[in-house]
């Protein structure tokens, strides 16, 4: 039995941070970083049945073209992804009254719709990128059991870069990736970083002694000769936890910055709007 400090429930029986009950969520879940983006997704719904908000976690559940979908904000970073994935999993796979894991488990589909910065100069701004795998420099998955995803490329990457801790590598669900055609959603490999500034090669007022390694990241070749494509802050955590909990996950980003060319998209809102609508339509087609 899971004790009160392990599985924390609010007085109405909802899970601690998300304030949700099992009936509040669908098995298809869109995650977004920005709480405001939840409404940008659900404004396309035929009907919204649930709106819930606590801290950075805003949840809307409704239907899009007849399909029940939950959209939830994680806020920024894999520390928040840890909370969202564990609490959503608890809603479907733990009997909250008995405080015991269920014997029959439910698999959820997670689709992250986020933003990201390109690491290669030849990737245009506005590209929709589906991360086939992600290298987590954030440490989250080092606290969980080993992933099935091969960690060899992560070890190679650490040796190649030379001066950062060992990242972990986690992969997208291949079956869920097939829902998003490669013609529209370019495939790539993502660096999930523990910050936006120095951990993504940026320097504003204080120096960034590791800025030079971002060219090495861009040069690194994976086992099949492919390159690292982009930088963001959630994907590796989402993939790693989804794999360990038995769910499917894909992470899709619109590339708003190009870190090699120093460019930023001139219409980030419009670029996100297109991605949201196209992704919703893929989910129902
Ligand atoms: O736009 P979202 O989904 O938040 O994703 C990206 O943007 C944030 C940083 O601006 C980080 O969360 C990063 O992963
Ligand atoms: O450069 C970028 C743009 C969006 N999100 C990030 O994490 N990095």
TrEMBL record:
Domain of life: Bacteria
CC annotations in GO: cytosol
Domain Nucleoside phosphorylase, chain residue ranges per copy: 28-262
Pfam families: PNP_UDP_1
Parts of the chain that traverse the membrane: none
EC number(s) on file: 2.4.2.3
Catalytic activity: uridine + phosphate = alpha-D-ribose 1-phosphate + uracil
An MF annotation (GO) of this entry: uridine phosphorylase activity
GO biological process: purine nucleoside catabolic process
Protein name per UniProt: Uridine phosphorylase
